[in-house]
């Protein structure tokens, strides 16, 4: 076991989708399976980090030595994450957080009525951007950007807007990379905007490559 600079560090990872309630029996969500975030949690724990995994609704087994907190909505994920903002050394946001939620979910079950139904959606808090805003210079913020086109440009824009130390551009092609599948194609973009294109890898291998890049960002304890 070679020494990792993540050894003993407190690492928070978000994973999976969020569910935003329309009424008591329906919700808005997305196809995230949590596999990418769970693979990062496993790999970080293997490197000796103290890992807290904030998981949206997924059907995955908790990796060994990982503390898991289950949440449902973006607001719940934000509330759980906020408790950890101050103490974590690294925050990795692999969750596919819903950008919007129904403004006022109906109580009970919404009745079928008429040909049209309008829902007013309200913006959710941006968990990762809030972390970056509050973090000290020694804390590390890592994000993902799932993009179908103009990936590099959009990912760099997100890295700058959210003040991230590292962003993993996640190429979405609907078959071998992105949601649900076992493999992923990532491009790692650092704070100098240099891009490292990784090949199509299993999500565990992609997680290891991402954490190698994170290890290089950790300042040796003085
Ligand atoms: O779970 P899998 O099926 O394995 O799929 C993995 C994945 C594709 C979900 C994952 O690798 C990924 O790319 N996650 C980010 C998806 C995305 O498109 O994020 P975004 O572009 O909406 O947001 C950019 C970053 O801000 C992300 O790190 C996101 O977690 C974070 N964010 C976004 C919105 C919000 N309200 N809060 C956030 O923290």
What's the CATH architecture name? 3-Layer(aba) Sandwich
Low-confidence stretches: none
Provide the β-strand percentage band: 25-35%
- Mean residue pLDDT: 95
Helix content: 10-25%
Strand order of the largest sheet: 5-4-1-6-9-10-11-12
Radius of gyration: 18 Å
Tell me which ligands are bound: ligand PMT
Tell me the CATH superfamily: CoaB-like
Might you state the CATH topology name? Answer: Rossmann fold
Number of strands: 12
Helix and strand run:
EEEHEEHEEEHEHEEEH
CATH class: Alpha Beta
Tally of individual helices: 5
What number of structural domains do the residues give?
1
| Biggest sheet architecture | 8 strands, mixed
General description of the model:
- The chain is an alpha/beta fold and 222 residues long.
- It has a single domain (10-105, 119-217), classed as 3-Layer(aba) Sandwich (Rossmann fold), CATH 3.40.50.
- Helix content is 25%, strand content 27%.
- The strands form 3 sheets. Strands 5-4-1-6-9-10-11-12 form an 8-stranded mixed β-sheet, with helices on both faces.
- A hairpin with a 4-residue loop joins strand 11 (183-190) and strand 12 (195-202).
- Bound molecules: ligand PMT.
- Ligand PMT binds next to helix 1, helix 3 and strand 9.
């Amino acid at each position: 076991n070679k020494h990792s600079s993540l050894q003993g560090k407190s690492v928070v990872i978000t994973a999976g989708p969020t569910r935003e309630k329309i009424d008591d029996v329906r919700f808005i969500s997305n196809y995230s399976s949590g596999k990418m975030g769970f693979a990062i949690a496993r790999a970080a724990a293997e490197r000796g980090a103290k890992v807290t995994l904030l998981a949206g609704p997924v059907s995955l087994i908790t990796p060994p030595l990982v503390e898991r907190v289950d949440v449902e909505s973006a607001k719940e994920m934000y509330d759980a994450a906020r408790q950890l903002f101050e103490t974590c050394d690294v925050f990795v946001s692999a969750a596919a957080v819903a950008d919007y939620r129904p403004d006022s979910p109906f109580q009970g079950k919404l009745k079928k009525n008429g040909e049209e139904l309008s829902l007013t959606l309200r913006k959710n808090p941006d968990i990762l951007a809030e972390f970056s805003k509050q973090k000290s210079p020694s804390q590390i913020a890592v994000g993902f950007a799932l993009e179908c086109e103009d990936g590099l440009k959009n990912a760099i824009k997100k890295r700058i807007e959210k003040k991230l130390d590292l962003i993993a551009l996640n190429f979405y092609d609907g078959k071998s990379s992105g949601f649900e599948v076992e493999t992923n194609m990532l491009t790692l973009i650092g704070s100098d905007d240099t891009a490292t294109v990784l090949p199509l890898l299993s999500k565990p291998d992609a997680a290891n490559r991402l954490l190698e890049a994170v290890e290089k960002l950790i300042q040796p304890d003085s």
